[in-house]
Amino acid sequence: MNIIETKGLTKYYGKSRGIIDLDLSVSEGEIFGFIGPNGAGKSTTIRLLLGLISPSSGTAKVLNMDCGRERTSILAQIGYMPSEAMFYDSLRVKEMIQLSAKLHKKDCSREAALLCDRFMLDKEKKIRELSLGNRKKVGIVCAFQHRPQLYILDEPTSGLDPLMQKEFFSLVEERNKEGAAVFLSSHVLSEIQRHCHSAAIIRDGQLVVHGSVEALSKTSARKVEVHGIQTPPAIDGILDVDCGAESVRFLYQGEMKSLIASLNALPVQDLSISEPDIEEIFMHFYHERSGSNDLI
């Protein structure tokens, strides 16, 4: 069963583009990565899923409920972390966490204490005294303390130091093993490749590719680096060329024997052929001359 599903989901802000015809599905029990730079449409999508804004057209369901009509029921059953959390500055950390728990009508004091200890968060400090990283930790506790079945996390690791980032993803994976699904937006591609089961790439408000992280990483294209030449061989299937002083790097999609035959006529000193990582695949989809998902 899909825990998140959108069909033709579109949002315009006046004449400005938000997202266009987004068809997206997230299955129960998976960690799903939503990839794109700032302005691609990630936060607009999340606000639509939460029912915080209304779509221009199309539909969105979360937990098999309509995101507009059943917003209150959805929000009661999920854990949400915005990219920039806004709290009441005059409250102490423990008061803010207690307020969040009351909104879910649950006693989360034990779980909140465990999470505060885990993330080394001082519960007695006032919100106004916190650094960006510690504000992020408050957001983590508020989103995770009631142990929901779905987490929607918008750029959750921005502002966290590397140690806390590692601890955060340990927590995400623990909750996932317990059966919770996670929808995680990020522009940190290594996070997606390391922790997510499936992913989608959004560009200029439109979905350009959607599938398992393993499938995205194992495309029919190959990463090629050739030393001893300054321009790539003149054959079809070469993409995203990067020329150095004495080497050329590119993605190649085609028959390997054709590539080897063309390189055989050139003064090649060294040759490396490997699978592209998800960052290189991502950059392909954002290349100014790329207009299709022809790597998959």
From TrEMBL:
InterPro entries, per database record: AAA+_ATPase (IPR003593), ABC_transporter-like_ATP-bd (IPR003439), ABC_transporter-like_CS (IPR017871), ABC_transporter_ATP-binding (IPR050763), P-loop_NTPase (IPR027417)
KW Transport (keyword) present: yes
Keywords of this entry: ATP-binding, Nucleotide-binding, Transport
ABC transporter domain segment(s): 4-229
Keyword DNA-binding: no
GO molecular function: ATP binding; ATP hydrolysis activity
Domain of life where this protein originates: Bacteria
Pfam families for this protein: ABC_tran
Family membership noted in the UniProt record: Belongs to the ABC transporter superfamily.
Name this polypeptide is given: ABC transporter ATP-binding protein
Organism: Hominibacterium faecale
